[in-house]
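Internal QA ticket QA-208
Title: Verify multi-chain structure generation after dependency bump
Assignee: T.L.

Test input:
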Amino acid sequence: MITTTPDSKEVAQAPINLAFTSEQKIAALREMLRIRRFEQQALKFYNQGKMGGFLHLYIGQESVAVAAASLMNGHDEMITAYRDHGHALAVGMSMEECMAELFGKATGCSKGKGGSMHFFAPDKHYWGGHGIVAGQVPLGLGLAFALKYKQIPGCALCFLGDGAVNQGVVAESLNLASLWDLPIVFIIENNGYSMGTSLERSSAIDNCLAERAAGFNMKWSVVNGSHFYELRATLHTSMEEARTTLRPVLLEIKTYRYYGHSIADANHKKYRTAEEIEQYKENHDPISCWQHQLLEEKILTESMLESIDGAAKEEAAASVIFAEASPWPEPESIFTDIYYEVDQASEAGRTGVHFFSDSR
Amino acid sequence: MPLITYRKALNEAFSEELTRDDSVFLMGEEVAEYNGAYKVTEGLWERFGSKRVIDTPISEAAFLGLGVGAAMMGLRPVVELMFWSFAYVGFDQIINNAGCVRYMSGGLINVPMVIRGPANGGTSVGATHSHTPENLIANTPGLKVVCPATPYDAKGLMIASIRDNDTVCFMENTLLYGNTGEVPEGSYTIPLGVADIKRLGTDISFIAYGRAVLTALEAAEILQAEHGISAEVIDLRSIRPLDEETLLTSVAKTHRVLLIDENKPFCGVSAQIAAMIAEKAFDELDAPILRVTALDAPAIYSMPLEKLQLPTPERIISKALTLF
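Actual output:
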């Protein structure tokens, strides 16, 4: 478990946090609340059978995606795994398109073809949303490689979970990033459990996961995910390091999820105690911590908080209405968005048979 | 027209595209300073430098995935697998990422990448280095598969594949790299999804791709000389997209079909094409659709036995004769 320490004066006084305006601080709170309210609505309707597949909730971890998104410079690129709703909303995707995707509707961000684990918005520098554990990590390398190749002054933010670190491709990717000087920040969101297996039962470590970076000659750091200023200060330093020196950095962010691995994870109160969950909610909840901070700074008042939260709840409820009212995708759409050339009806797309079903 | 090797034809294709388009780069194990394990990329690192021709560590999953990520961002990676057999340690990146990301993003993303290298048996390197995954890859909608048999086709198909905006899995053959053929200088493309009739005939259609085309041509000559049977030899060139029309036209002319490939028979490419012909041209057939494929066992090491494992002219001829 993470320890409780208030935001130290030092991180709050970091230049990147001094430059963080009151409006931006409130906006960060708003984003975290929007993510939480969105997912609570999603949970409600998932439990009513309105959605297929899995629903991996980000509740408890909201500060991480919001802090990272608040530091993106317009050239930075983000990619994550399947617990991707928070990142999607944080980069500016709308609740409507995200909720509609969960409902499998044509108005969804992936037209109902991707589902919960596969949200994308390349126009917002957001490259998914990937379902296979660690499968996105080398894609993140590719984003960083392309930035460097095109001499774009940005970095890639590549999120992964604590369960992903034991996939072979992560070791390969850390090596390549360091070997080739790629501008990438690997961000392990360590919520303590890879599905039902605790960190202790899955990873051979001495002190932390991040120190594995040392074996690849890479800088690393461990951050308390409940402390927004600390998150921003460390993320900023790491992103600047990647952008300016083209050296990769590995961060491990200590965080926690309140729900199971997915909502289908019926055992999530068996592999950890109810007290552990309550303790986190009480003492480490990233939204409560940030609210408390902003109340102390007198930037936020209780009535403002009520109004921000109320608006987030309304927006989330409206996104459900939008999703429910939206049409299902047409059966014909099964055969689109497979080959670019076919979709464009280019010469290449019109040459030869691309699909082999009788029903087409 | 200059007579050059299959290897050199591919090299020329890379050279043309590296010159034409700054977003094209080559990447793989030993492709740069070593000049390529099979010398396909010889001289390109010296000419184009380390930014465009890149040696990788032995990390197929990472550099295949890196290629996908870079392609999503608009670059055009040409990623070499020293053997296509090594794709198996990076399959997640090929199938789940290159193959599915366009669909799962509702068409927001495309992956203009070429994954290439030799995919063949017949060289006594044992089962793990002798895989022919064209059927496995072609089973994934979203990926394209190309298997050229001649130097001319190799160059034109490679240029078309690099310019294609989808991922093309380009399967070469170490036994063909040294073969020579007439190849035009400069740039030209051969569209994916267009088969080539390598030999006109009237009595039976031999449908093949890759090195099996050459075996089929050899068999066709013997069949003509010794049995007076005129075989038409069709080279698929591309497995997906597939030129069904050329196949069906040939079947309608000859009324007999023998499928020849170095893939394994079970759920192999020939199985798919046999099903397609049965569905679409059953009434044209005067005989059952038969196949000559690799013998259905892992690739054996022992030299004389491995020769028997792949289709031979003798096996083709004896199978063809049963159809008359």
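Spot checks passed. Chain B has a mean pLDDT of 97.
Status: verified.
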